[in-house]
Amino acid sequence: MTESQKRPRRAPGPDERRLDAERSRRLLLDAALDEFSAKGFAGARVQDIADRAGLNKQLINYYFGGKEGLYREIGRRWEEREAEFNDPAVPLDELLVRYLRHAFDDPRGTRLNAWSGLTEDTDDFPPEMREDLSDMERRKAAGELADDLDPAAVMLVMMGVVAAPIVMPLAVRRVFGMDPRSPEFRDHYAEQLRRMIRHLAPTPTPEENG
After folding, report:
1. Sign of the four-CA dihedral 204, 93, 167, 169
2. Boundaries of each HTH tetR-type domain copy (predicted)?
């Protein structure tokens, strides 16, 4: 027996176990987002998620309580990520471009939202999950939106224009004649959205122009 075989196996310390658990959770969440965005919640299989992550599928139950728990955790993590760039202090056109850039950089969340919108029952939508319009209403009061514009309608339009290049890439090619993945299209589209959003502000009257 060699010296290494005689030596007892060292048990991992608390920090090592924590890091291993964090890595496993991260791999499973990333794999789940891949599967959900490609197949929707109903079409994604736990075994496929585990295989993509290179882990035992039992860990999904252990860490998240099943596929539903994975789905909820993805939503929670998106809210954390959104809070990092959804700054009420930035102008509305810049805020929209920030969402657009995030969608371009990682389109999986946008695709997942498209799946959800097409397959989930809207009658089961809980009222407490209604979109918070307080920031949009504040922006309207501050003069970023014209008085005759509904903040809810503006927000829905903003969601749509961010999602459009991701969920309708063929339409981008037909309308713009450009590759939706190209830097040229991304820059052009972002600049056009900035201009559109600026046009939503009230038009100064001749008296206000001096």
Report:
1. positive
2. 22-82
What region, left, alpha or beta, does residue 83 occupy, with left being phi > 0 and alpha being psi -120 to 50 degrees?
Answer: alpha
Helix axes 108-119, 14-43, angle to 10 degrees: 50
CB 104 within 8 A of CB 193: no
SS3 100: helix
Strands (E), 154-205: none
Task: Provide the token pair at 73.
Answer: 């955790």
Backbone phi, psi, residue 54, to 5°: 75, 35
- What are the residue boundaries of the structural domains of the chain, listed by start? 14-75, 86-121+133-203
Single-letter code of the amino acid located at 73: E
C-alpha 204 chain-centroid distance: 36
pLDDT tens-digit series, residues 1-60: 555 555 555 455 555 566 688 999 999 999 999 999 999 999 999 999 999 999 999 999
**Which residue is associated with the tokens 């040229």?**
184
Q: Which amino acid is at 64?
A: F
pLDDT tens digits for range 60-117:
999 999 999 999 999 999 989 888 888 889 999 999 999 999 999 999 999 999 998 8
Fold of 14-75: Arc Repressor Mutant, subunit A (1.10.10)
Identity of the residue numbered 120: E
